[in-house]
Amino acid sequence: MKTDEAINILKTEGHKYTNKRRDMINIFVNEDKYINAKHIQQKLDESYPGISFDTIYRNLHLFKDLGIVEGTELDGEMKFRIACTDHHHHHFICESCGDTKVIDFCPIEQIKSFLPKVDIHRHKLEVYGICEACQRVQ
Fold it and tell me: Signal sequence span per UniProt (predicted)?
């Protein structure tokens, strides 16, 4: 997702457009990996000294509810990344740096065959490990 798409979602859903929200979305677009609220707060503090975690978390949850960002729990904390909107896929997530890699394979048909009597509404597959770059550093 690009910044303009995310801002359009905010406006369409009746939420205020602010420079803080734009800058927060830009952080996600530029990083393109899972990051935590503290990272966002540190980046925004450069332009908005003293920005509170409450502001960060409130916007993170709004963005997640609107489908602008995706969240996952990693190392006991929530981390977020800009939502992928181009095609259905899943992710490998590096446990060290938060970098993601696209997995174009989707096992949902196999899962449905193992669970023929359930009604699956949605799914999300995340694979965790250490990326190539972080393996070289260790």
Answer: none
